[in-house]
Specification:
The chain is mainly alpha-helical. The protein contains twelve helices and nine strands. Strand 8 and strand 9 form a beta hairpin.
Length: 295
C-alpha cells in the first residue's frame, strides 16, 4: 500500500515487563542517540517517534537490567563509574536506581559452586521450578502495598543523614536515592504478600543500599571511603565494633562509659555512633545509666 508502519523495539516490547541489555559498555560514540532515547524511556516511561510523517509516543514502562564491563576489565575504586564506562552517557548511568559492583573475589568454596553450576550441577533444594516461580511472581505482582507514614519518616531521616555525610566520601547522594529506597521496600513488601510496607521492609532496603555502596568502598554509616570493604573484607566500622566488644567485660555490671571513651580516644566523635549501632544490633545494653555491657 506504500504506507509507513512503526516497528516496536526492545523497550516497547518489554512494556510492563523487564528488558535485559547485555554489553551495555560496548555502545560506540556513534550510538550516542541511543542513550538519549534511553534517557527519555527511563525518565518518562515513553518513547517518542518522529519518522516518515509519523509522530507518536509508545509506552516503555519497563524495568531495565543492564550488564557492562569496566574500561580496564576490573572495577577501579579510584575512578568514578562514569570514567570506567566512557561510552555511556553520565545522564543515563545516573538514571539506574541500583548500581551493583560485582568483584571477582577468590573464594574456593564459592568458585567450586560457580564451576559446578556452569556444568549443570545444581542442588535440587537450591532452586524453584519454573512453574512455581511463575506463580509466585504473578501473585506477588498483584499486590500494591500502601506506603505508611512510619516508612515515609524513616526514609526521610535516612536520606537527610546520608546527605549530611556524603561530602566526606566524595560520593554524591541525589534525591533519586529516596525513590530507590522506597521502590526496593515496596518490592520486598510484595514479595512478602503484604498490603502495607513496614519499617522492616524499609530497613532491609536501606541495608541493601548500604551493601551496594560498601562494594564500591563507601561506608555510608560513618561517611568515609573505606577500601577495607573491598574483596569481601570487613570494613573499618565493623572492625571497630569488634574491638569495642572485646574491650567490654563478660561479667559484672559492664564498663563505665567514661572508661570506654578513654579506650578509644583516637576515635573521638565516632564512639557514640558505634555504641548506638551495637545497641540496635542487640549486642550491648546499658544495665544502668553510664554503664555498657555485652548481651
Amino acid at each position: 500500500t506504500g504506507e509507513w508502519r512503526l516497528k516496536a523495539k526492545t523497550l516497547v516490547k518489554a512494556n510492563k515487563g523487564v528488558a535485559c541489555l547485555d554489553e551495555f559498555d560496548n555502545l560506540s560514540d556513534s550510538d550516542a542517540s541511543d542513550y538519549e532515547k534511553l534517557n527519555e524511556a527511563m525518565e518518562s516511561g515513553q518513547a517518542s517517534i518522529e519518522k516518515a510523517s509519523i509522530s507518536t509516543t509508545l509506552p516503555t514502562n519497563t524495568s531495565i537490567i543492564a550488564a557492562a564491563n569496566p574500561k580496564y576489565g576490573d572495577f577501579d575504586l579510584n575512578s568514578s563509574i562514569v570514567d570506567q564506562f566512557p561510552n555511556a552517557a553520565a545522564s543515563t548511568l545516573s538514571r539506574f536506581s541500583l548500581q551493583v559492583v560485582s568483584k571477582g573475589v577468590q573464594k574456593k568454596e564459592l568458585d567450586r559452586k560457580v564451576a559446578d553450576a556452569m556444568q549443570g550441577k545444581v542442588e535440587s533444594d537450591e532452586i524453584l521450578s519454573e512453574k512455581v516461580l511463575r506463580k509466585y511472581v504473578k501473585y506477588a505482582k498483584s499486590f500494591e502495598p500502601e506506603w505508611t507514614d512510619d516508612c515515609r519518616e524513616r526514609v526521610s531521616s535516612f536520606y537527610a543523614d546520608i546527605r549530611e555525610k556524603s561530602d566526606n566520601i566524595g560520593q554524591k547522594v541525589r534525591a533519586r536515592m529516596v525513590r530507590t529506597v522506597q521502590n526496593v521496600a515496596l518490592a520486598l513488601a510484595r514479595m512478602d504478600f503484604c498490603k502495607k510496607a513496614s519499617i522492616q521492609h524499609v530497613e532491609e532496603s536501606i541495608g541493601f543500599l548500604k551493601e551496594l555502596f560498601r562494594r564500591k568502598g563507601f561506608d555510608l554509616e560513618q561517611g568515609e571511603f573505606d577500601v577495607d570493604y573491598v574483596d569481601g573484607g570487613k570494613g573499618r566500622n565493623a572492625l571497630r565494633k569488634d574491638v569495642l566488644l572485646d574491650v567490654l567485660p563478660d561479667e559484672g555490671e559492664g564498663m563505665a562509659l567514661e572508661d570506654v571513651y578513654d579506650c578509644f580516644e583516637e576515635m573521638e566523635g565516632k564512639v557514640d555512633g558505634l555504641i548506638d549501632d551495637l545497641k540496635d544490633e542487640g549486642e550491648v545494653f546499658e544495665p544502668r545509666p553510664g554503664f555498657l555491657k555485652k548481651l
